[in-house]
Design brief:
Rossmann fold; 5-stranded mixed beta barrel; globular
Length: 270
Amino acid sequence: MLTKFKESADYIKSRTNVKPSIGIILGTGLGGLVNEINIIDEIAYEDIPNFPVSTVESHSGKLIFGELGGKQVVAMQGRFHFYEGYTMKEVTFPVRVMKFLEIERLFVSNASGGVNPDFEVGEIMILDDHIDLFPAHPLIGKNIDELGPRFPDMMKTYDAKMIELAKTIAKENNIKVSQGTYAGLTGPTLETPAEYKYVRAIGADAVGMSTVPEVIVARHMDIPCFAISIVTDLGVPGMIQETSLQDVIEVANRQEPKMTIIMKELISRV
């Protein structure tokens, strides 16, 4: 696998002169941040050796290279999900490649279902922890010591300084944000009412189908992480409604400009 990571990174380096210090993974309905990037190069996933190809309708499937907030960045416009049939190593492959592109920080966004009864549809939640409920783990198998330790500590999964700075930026821009724990499940079904209750009972504030694997791999490689979620539907008893992908995208699109302000300004200040 190490050879594949380096092969992909070498190909990318041959296609762009951008040397990103920031890696960005954009979630469902949250691709608007790309519009803020001064784009220099774009590379389709299908052109990159060893890269998976996104199969989700709302994920366009390309790497964007450019400048944002005074930093050189690489943004994944379209991520990979376990529910698409990929292995965890395939889901997290781009994060490994970003390490060989020498990113120093990883920024992640997602859409989620809120289980905290204080949340509203459209709530913007900054992640300060997660619960891994996926049936597979991205670090299972032989450890590659060049990437990170066999047993990485996950106590400081989400960078505390970036969390506090993001909260300051939100306050400066009159953007209401919450802070909480995200539970990662496989999907592609949304949770049943009983599953929502379970997720809340074990300590989560929101639940989704991504982010956890990518962050685990980033932390394995000692990359500081910041993640933010837009709550697009509620899994709170008495407030659960049938939800479609279009519903999720509409709410995410509506709140995405606020998330973009936070992400862009945070990137400029770190």
